[in-house]
Each structure stands twice: as C-alpha cells, then as structure tokens.
Amino acid sequence: MSVPTQLHPAAPVDEVDADAGPGALAEFERRFAGIAVIVVLLLAWEAAARWLIPAVKPSLAVLIPPPSEVLHAAITMARSGELLTHVVASSQRVLIAWALVVVTAVPLGIAMGWSTRFNRYVDPLIELLRPIPPLAWIPISILWFGIGITQNLFIIMIGVFFPVLLNTIHGVRGIEPVLIRAARNLGAPPRKLLTRVVLMGALPAIFNGIRIGLGVAWMVLVAAELVAATSGLGYMIQDARNFLRTDIIFMGMFMIGFMGILMDVVLRFLARPLLSWHHGSGDL
C-alpha cells in the first residue's frame, strides 16, 4: 500500500464557501457587493441629512446636504454646460502633466536603476527633493508662473514624478540577474538587452507607478486649483465654498472620485495587451 508523499492543504474556508455556495448568490455578491454598500450608505446619508441632523442640530443641516440635492446640483450644472467645462479643464491638466512625467520619469528611472554610476550622481538630488510635498511648491510656483495652467501643470508634475520614478527604479533593479546573463550569453546587443529584457521585465512595476501617479495627479490638481486656477473642479469647489453651496462642494468631490476611477479603468484596459505575459495581468 503506497503512502502519499505530499499532502495538499485544504482550501481556505472563505474560498470553499465562495465556490460551493448558491450560484445566483455568489454571482450577485461578486458583481454587486461593492455597489450595495454604496447604496446603503447613500440611503443612510439621505435619511440622516433630511430628518436626523435637522432634528438634532439644525445649524448643521446646511453643511451636510442630502445626496438628492447633490444629484440635483449635478444635473443643473450638467444641463448648463458648466460642469462639463470644469471637468474638461481638470482632465486636460491631469493628462498633460501625467504624460509629461511618464516620458521623463520612466527613462530617468531606467537609467538610475540600470547604471550604478549614474545613480550615484543623481540619487542625492532626488532624495533631497522627494520629501518636499507638492503643496509646498505652490507659493513659489505662483511667483514663477502666475495663476494659470502652467502653474497647475508644474504642481501636478511634482506630485506624479516621484511615484513613477521610484517604481521604475524598483522594477529595473528587481529583474532577475540570470535573465540578463542569459541574454548576454546569447549575444544580445546592449540596445536589445535594454528594450527586450530590462524594459519588459520592469514593465509591471512601471505600470504600477503610472497608476499611482495618475491617482496622485487628481489629489494634487485639486489643491493647485483651489488657490491658482480660474476653472476646473478644484476652482468650482472653492467658488462654491464662498457661497456656502455645500451641494456643489460634495458634487465636485464625487466628480473627482468618478474621473479618477474612470481614468484608472481606461488605463488598465489599455495596459492589458502590454502585460498579458505577466502572471498578475488578470487582476487588471
């Protein structure tokens, strides 16, 4: 009688439940669990803003509008075209600054990760500038560029630059040395070694940095628009604050989140063909 030499551990309880549970319930949970949580929170917010807060502390009622009023403000501004104007202005700034960072930080990160000598010269400057928050650059950037798109792009680029750069460096340094030695032994010239081995091997880490940078771009953009813009979602929020239009403030915040999610979904969709070889590409 043979004795098995390897025991296979049982699957985790939650995995078993997910696979063995009722098909319809499992499918519903997979597709709509997150949406259901959002709907429940919105309903609770609506009830609290309409009845609970006015009854407990009426002075807060104007500061916390119900979601229905936020939706009404969004519809009104969408019909007038004002919302689209602000969304387009912010999206243009984000995409331009983000693209400029990608074409500068990625090559720099590859060079720093690949060449120890080059990294020795550049790394001290990077480490000096990296801890400075993007918002600290706003006063001097206004003096340099004035109020407008150039100043906004400058602030966004500073916020996006370091996540993209550091992830690129990490990706290049994380390539298995055996792959590089194998390519060299097979006679790969330096150019092909860099493009076919180094760049492709670092691509997942580079993509992670690009995704993080895109999210950071929206956070930094709004801060820049609050003080140095005449259009955009950040400007719209600041203008609404001056008139105590909290419904527009919340609407602007939700639009920022929605645009961030939308751009991330599009970016992941476009990246799938490039990362189809990677074992984690199914999560994109």
- Give the CATH superfamily of the largest domain: MetI-like
CATH architecture of the largest domain: Orthogonal Bundle
Query: What is the terminal separation in angstroms?
Result: 47 Å
> Globular, elongated, flat, extended or rod-shaped: what is the shape?
globular
The CATH topology of the largest domain corresponds to MetI-like fold
DSSP summary, beta strand count? 0
Task: Assess the beta-strand content as a share of residues.
Answer: under 5%
Mean pLDDT: 85
Structural class: mainly alpha
Q: Which spans of ≥5 residues are poorly predicted at pLDDT below 50?
A: 1-11
Number of domains: 2
Please tell me how large the radius of gyration is: 25 Å
CATH top level of the largest domain is Mainly Alpha
The largest pleated sheet is described as:
none
- The number of distinct helices, counting runs of at least 4 residues, comes to 11
The ordered string of helix (H) and strand (E) elements is HHHHHHHHHHH
Q: What helical percentage do the residues reach? A: over 70%
Q: Your description of this structure?
A:
This protein has helices at 13-20, 23-56, 67-80, 82-114, 116-129, 138-145, 149-173, 177-185, 190-227, 233-242, 246-271. It is 77% helix and 0% strand. It is globular. The two termini are 47 Å apart. It is an all-alpha fold.
Quick recap of the structure?
The protein is mainly alpha-helical and 284 residues long.
Lay out the secondary structure:
Blueprint: H1 13-20, H2 23-56, H3 67-80, H4 82-114, H5 116-129, H6 138-145, H7 149-173, H8 177-185, H9 190-227, H10 233-242, H11 246-271
Helix pairs in contact: 3-11, 4-5, 4-7, 4-9, 4-10, 6-7, 7-9, 8-9, 9-10, 9-11, 10-11
